[in-house]
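To: structure subgroup
Subject: Chain for Friday's discussion

All,

I'm putting the inputs and outputs inline so they're searchable in the archive.
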Amino acid sequence: MVDVTVYGAGIFGLSVAWSCVKRGAKVQVIDPNGVAAGSSGGIVGALAPHTPENWNDKKEFQFQSLITAEDYWAEVAEVSGQSPGYARSGRLQPIPDQRAHDLAFKRQKGAAELWRGKASWDIKPAADFEGWCPNSPTEFVIHDTLSARIHPRQACTALAAALKAKGVEIKSEGAPKGHIVWATGWRGLLELSKEIERPIGNGVKGQAILLEFDRADLPQLFADALHVIPHADGTVAIGSTSERDFEDPYATDAQLDEVYQRAVDAVPALRNAPILARWAGVRPRAKSRAPMLGNHPTRAGDFIANGGFKIGFGMAPKAGEVMADLILENHDEIPEGFRPEASI
């Protein structure tokens, strides 16, 4: 007897399945392409918070998800026997000028209140991180302790293994049973847009690069609009592009070369690190730019979990919980801005 069928074995589909299983539900996951076949199989994995100002439901939701992520991924690692590559490593951002310094100081005070002592947003001398810090014209950086890293592909593999350890079957095809959840990524958003005859979301291609460079114990960096993520396995990921127009979802090109050059200009320590891999994939972006969670807009009785553009892994622990609340208990705590109607 299956209580829940989840279509899609990316981070949203797997996290919904995990939250349902932990509440005793019998779950099956169906994806013709396998686990993390889309953008959830990426290499970057920056779990970065929204700025601590102009607080709203979206920022509070993400904050709660990031705060609970350490215990969430520790449990996944324990059940699966596999590492998701998670660490709350913090993040450094260069401060380019006095105006940015004043804004950072304002946000430092905001974090003290809004992050409720669970994390900090501090202004520190760049010299404190000599050898790893990005170039900073003011010689100061923002150091926040809420940002975390994860290896997306490894995290999905670990989560799938944890689900299988709990008796969940992950398969390429099968008949839907019980409650049905659609977590089908960017192609699912395009299909839904076609079905209702107006755009509600699309795919945005991203390209990233992986270097052999062991800085596993140091913070991630955000410089020149790029994420630089030291992973636990002795690699560093750099990404990414944001391409709305593309022909091949999986091809890398000169745009990635430009990303690499910007990264080594900002962080000279990376310059001689060997390149291990080049990656490209398409991330699902809902029209509202927020995750799309809740009752499916066209399939009565079904549910949707999609649109985790750039923040899907950071939102996943909380997204899985609120979806399990809705699916299994008919209890709805999904923020208004996350509901499908916000994108329709």
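Points worth raising on Friday:
The chain is about 30% helix and 25% strand.
The first helix runs from residue 11 to 22.

D.
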